[in-house]
Amino acid sequence: MTNHIALFEPLMPANTGNIARTCAGTDTVLHLIEPLGFKIDDKHLKRAGLDYWDSVDVRMHADLPAFIESIPDLNQLYLVSKFANHDYSDVDYSDTSKDHYFLFGKETTGLPEPFMRRYPEKAIRIPQDDSHIRALNLSNSAAIVIYEALRQQGFPNLERSHQYENDKLK
């Protein structure tokens, strides 16, 4: 079982770099759906991901249909959108025999409306107060969702923090 984060036409290199760092730390595959709003060698992208890029399985897709075509089981696709009716925390991601794909939209416009209308049952949302903000930050949203999936899966293959040799915290 593998978890996947997919970014539809990301615009901001810092968001993508931060998400890449989260993917490196959680053994999550990162899918980038073109066109990107930056060059993959952008210095801001590298700075945000620091030296973790070698630890990330990054897969490029020419467009949204190419990404959808790459998913073996569309039942495991989740569209993250503030316009969804179901909260991300109400979905069962615990089946570790299947991959889980979390698709996030462009920072400015989200996922294309015609695409969302085609798959409304796959849409999940992170609750927020829309009277104060338009949307949560993309990298924060990706971290919230992937860690909920990992929590339900028992944090597979993630090591616990090493304790201090003298255990100074006790």
Describe the fold and architecture:
It is found in: Cytoplasm. This is Putative tRNA (cytidine(34)-2'-O)-methyltransferase. Residues 4-147 form the tRNA/rRNA methyltransferase SpoU type domain. S-adenosyl-L-methionine binds at residues 80, 105, 126. InterPro entries: Alpha/beta_knot_MTases, SpoU_MeTrfase, TrmL, tRNA_m1G_MTases_N. It is a single chain. By secondary structure, the protein is of the alpha/beta class. It has one domain (3-152): Alpha/beta knot (3-Layer(aba) Sandwich). Helices cover 29% and strands 17% of the residues. The protein contains 5 helices and 7 strands. It has helices spanning 13-26, 43-49, 64-70, 113-118, 138-152, and strands at 3-8, 29-33, 58-61, 77-80, 86-87, 100-104, 123-125. A 7-stranded parallel sheet has the order 3-2-1-6-4-7-5. α1 packs parallel to α2 and α1 runs parallel beside α5. The longest helix has 15 residues, at 138-152. The radius of gyration is 16 Å and the shape is globular. The termini are far apart.
